[in-house]
Amino acid sequence: MLRFSTRLLALWVACFLLPAPGFAQDAAGAPVPEDRDGNVYEDVDELLVGARVHALWMVRDKHGKPANEFRMNTVRLRLKWRASEMVEAALEADVADAFGGTAETQVSPFLRDAYVRLEPLKLLNVQMGQFKKPFSRIELRSKGKLETILRGVSNEFLVQDLLYGERDIGIMVDGRIGGRKKGGRYFVGAFNGTGKNAKEQDVNGVKDIVARIEADPWKWLSLGTNVSVKLSDPSDELLRPESAWLAGADARLRLGDLLIIAEGLFGQGVDESCVSDDMYALYKCASDKKYDSPPTAWSALLLTSYRIQLTEGAGALMLEPVLKAEMLNPNTDVDSGAVVGLTPAVNLHIGKHTRIMADGELLFAQDHTYARFDDDKRFLLQLAFDL
To answer: Region 273-283: what's the mean pLDDT?
Structure first.
């Protein structure tokens, strides 16, 4: 993050307010404002500028998909402003999506985060706007820290496509018990349930409810559990179930240079008749008739990596081999087996801000009845810069 004085920019960014979980301590023991990503402000009137550029090359062996493709995976600009000890402001946009979006979007289609956070107490904070729902450790892990280029098929289907997680517009209350390195946090939020940059569709006022609890009993161990409940208007014409839910538990273990992340999800998916190549999100389900209870779905994921320091200094090199394995069953009511994903990868860190990432992603669908799950083999090479 780069730092600038913001007295001349205050009026411009004051409408975008973003969270900060607590305060660090300076050499004299005085509180110093610190944002959610661990960036420490030197003053309460200071602008932090962040950027993320991820350029991707992908070679793929899947019918109907490009066999050789260059893509801008992520091009993001992030502005954060600490207005006071209780208020922080921010705006994040992904320029890679600047030419995307649909007629349903009510604001810029490439807007990512734009929300207000007030922190009157460590135990009680309020956040409103557009931001990620507090659900799934893999989903909440920033792309700048994620060990693989993609989060995986289970995250893509259950968390993002079915909108149990991902970004949404709403309000959240959260708080911290204990210190930043050792203690716990809770999150409870209500959201429209239609995803980022999308208008509300329920006329009866129902909202999605998402809750998460995190515990850090030791510096090297973090545990989490969460639940996401989708509530829909039964009188609309979208043929959605009145309610559906997904719950899960996760853990992160860091022992020196070894990292292990595990996550399991269990709940209700979506019937096969509601799935197509371009419209398979739960809130857009278009089956012939409503179903009272969506089918059961589950997933399990394990990711492990190990850091190997090669050189020291400002441009230090660090090698990080990674292995991710996952299983997804989107509908246990159908005897079609689980979708299995395996991703061996290696990252070369160059200094603090640059990574060369190489992933080999294998997906085995086992002749799954869901049309969207086919065997897939692809190699991804990404140059990633994160400031």
So the answer is: 43
